[in-house]
Amino acid sequence: MKVSIIAALGKNNEIGKDNDLIWHLPKDMKFFTETTTGHYVIMGRKNYESIPEKYRPLKNRVNVIVTRQKDYKAENCVVVSSVEEGIELARFEGETECFIIGGGQIYKHAIEADLIDRMYLTHISEGFEADTHFPEFDPEGWFCKGLMSHKKDEKNPYDFVIDQYDRKR
């Protein structure tokens, strides 16, 4: 089973502010939805709670929430106490590729603990004010291939590219 990260980053690795997204890019959101549908998505509790209620849990996916809160409940979601436990659950259930979808602390732990095989990173051409950033990683340890390039248009206010990074093993 592949363990993948999927994230969108501003040009200074920013990913969020006040527990929310800092841009609206429907074309990137469509890529996220198409890529993760039918799979396990692993996220931190605050990330889950930042999803607008009408979209929770993310449909057609197994939503796995990582939290230290022993009594945390979220309807139609699986609650675990660690990223590793979420990955093991997905593996046990026969998943082929599970996705870590945030937030910042979850991404940082997954990269530092060497849990990741692949990353799908949307690189937005602008910088934003943020309080949460994607962790630094050594690009030398990864093969990178471009998946999509999109110029800003009436619906997507920023240029962006989506790259796939596969770990060199």
UniProtKB/TrEMBL annotation:
Report domain DHFR positions.
2-167
Q: In which pathway does this enzyme or protein participate?
A: Cofactor biosynthesis; tetrahydrofolate biosynthesis; 5,6,7,8-tetrahydrofolate from 7,8-dihydrofolate: step 1/1
Top-level lineage group:
Bacteria
Q: What EC identifiers does the entry list?
A: 1.5.1.3
Protein family membership: Belongs to the dihydrofolate reductase family.
- Give the protein's function: Key enzyme in folate metabolism. Catalyzes an essential reaction for de novo glycine and purine synthesis, and for DNA precursor synthesis.
UniProt cross-references to InterPro entries, sorted A to Z: DHFR, DHFR-like_dom_sf, DHFR_dom
Organism whose genome encodes this protein = Parvicella tangerina
Q: One Pfam family this chain carries?
A: DHFR_1
Name the PROSITE patterns on file: DHFR_2
Q: Which reaction does it catalyse?
A: (6S)-5,6,7,8-tetrahydrofolate + NADP(+) = 7,8-dihydrofolate + NADPH + H(+)
User: Does the UniProt entry include the keyword DNA damage?
Assistant: no
**Biological processes annotated in GO:** dihydrofolate metabolic process; folic acid metabolic process; one-carbon metabolic process; tetrahydrofolate biosynthetic process
Give the record's keywords alphabetically: NADP, One-carbon metabolism, Oxidoreductase
For this UniProt entry, the molecular function terms from Gene Ontology, in alphabetical order, are: dihydrofolate reductase activity; NADP binding
Q: Name one GO cellular component term.
A: cytosol
How would you classify this enzyme at the top EC level?
oxidoreductase
**What's the protein name?**
Dihydrofolate reductase
Q: Does the keyword Glycoprotein apply?
A: no
